[in-house]
Amino acid sequence: MGAPGSEDDVLTAGDDHAARAHSAFDLSAGRIRSSAHLADMENGQAREGHRVAVLIPCYNEELTVAGVVRSFKAVLPFADIYVYDNNSTDRTAARAAQAGAIVRNERRQGKGHTVRRMFADIQADIYLLVDGDDTYDANIATSIVEQIGDVGLDFVNVARVSTSVAAYRPGHRLGNLLLTRLVRSIFGRESTDMLSGYKGFSRRFVKSFPAMSSGFETETELTVHALELRMPMTEIVAPYKERPLGSMSKLRTYRDGMRIFLLIWRLVKDERPFQFFGFMGLSVLIFGAVLAAPIFQTYFETGLVPRLPTAVLCVSLMMLGFLSIFAGVILDVVTKTRNELKRLAYLSIQPPSRPGLHPRSSGL
């Protein structure tokens, strides 16, 4: 968090603190304090003591951010609503503050940088991440909180369902389908809409997430993190509507699609090194064998090796192929050790208390 008085200071609506002090809800801590929390528990909104934070990364969302903040404040009145302004050139920050959000700034451009900063700064038990473009349904937030707080899941992905072509363009739909299927075939099949910008996380997820991406590809990294650590997760569907008139999407189909593909390529290399380097090594071995076949045929017929440079190339390719396979084997062991350490770091974070789970007393 920015230090008091710094350029990253928090902006809030003027009388918000006074209102919080007399509210039935302790909003500053994001906890339900009054007896009315029983009704909220029945609706799956929260459990006593759970701090809920809604995270909204924004870049030039002046037309929509206030509506998003008000929608989530209405559905989750006990939650803290954070808007991180990512170098907007319009009045995004002012509109968010007027709507009652806690507004902070992130100077590094890109959604990945903003998500990394939010995860590092904000302390809560349950986190909801949603775009500030007013295309997602806030009413589904209660189900997300219930899945994390009551069921005990670490990751909830919200799959988009839309009948409007304008809301979900065919090019984006096709790209999402192809990239999601690629990830499902490599890492796991628990997600059908990997690139959705609406997700829920437990504290365990957030505080164990390395956040290495810089842009929109962070959604892929979030999904793979849950799959790799075998976290309890689920996916729910929700309506996806088109942007309000005058609001422009920041997604660039080909540029961001290529960045997501390159991220998947890097994740395969890092998380599946044996398959990655083994496939490369096997391809090189096959190529070398194809080049060597005519040389062996000539040698058996004449006893000569007339194409010495090609023979040297074949031997080099064979050596390179075997080295690549052995490198994959070694890196696979390193990756498994790294994943074990990541799993231990994840387990070291205390999960929120859940109904029906009562630790034994120290005397038993």
Question: Quick one: how many beta strands?
Answer: 9
Strand content: 5-15%
Calculate the terminal CA-CA distance, rounded to whole Å: 42 Å
**CATH topology title of the largest domain:** Spore Coat Polysaccharide Biosynthesis Protein SpsA, Chain A
Instruction: Report low-confidence residues grouped into runs of 5 or more.
Output: 1-47, 358-364
Largest sheet: 7 strands, mixed
Assign the structural class, choosing from mainly alpha, mainly beta, alpha/beta, alpha+beta, or little secondary structure.
alpha/beta
Report the oligomer: single chain
- The residue fraction in helices comes out at 40-55%
Order of strands in the sheet with most strands: 5-4-3-6-8-7-9
Mean pLDDT over all positions: 81
CATH architecture of the largest domain: Alpha-Beta Complex
Determine and state the CATH class of the largest domain.
Answer: Alpha Beta
Name the features:
seven-stranded mixed β-sheet, single chain, alpha/beta, Spore Coat Polysaccharide Biosynthesis Protein SpsA, Chain A, elongated, disordered C terminus, 2 domains, 9 strands, two-stranded antiparallel sheet, 364 residues, disordered N terminus, 12 helices
Describe the structure in your own words.
By secondary structure, this protein is α/β, with parallel strands linked by helices. It folds into two domains: 16-269, Spore Coat Polysaccharide Biosynthesis Protein SpsA, Chain A (Alpha-Beta Complex), CATH 3.90.550.10; 272-347. The protein is 48% helix and 12% strand. It is built from twelve helices and nine strands. It has helices at 16-21, 37-42, 65-75, 92-98, 111-121, 141-149, 170-186, 203-208, 218-228, 253-271, 273-302, 308-347; strands at 25-26, 31-32, 52-58, 80-85, 102-105, 126-129, 155-161, 199-202, 233-239. It has a seven-stranded mixed beta sheet with strand order 5-4-3-6-8-7-9, with helices on both faces. A hairpin with a 4-residue loop joins strand 1 and strand 2 (31-32). Helix 7 (170-186) runs parallel beside helix 10 (253-271), helix 9 packs parallel to helix 10 (253-271) and helix 10 (253-271) crosses helix 11. The model is unreliable at 1-47 and 358-364 (pLDDT under 50).
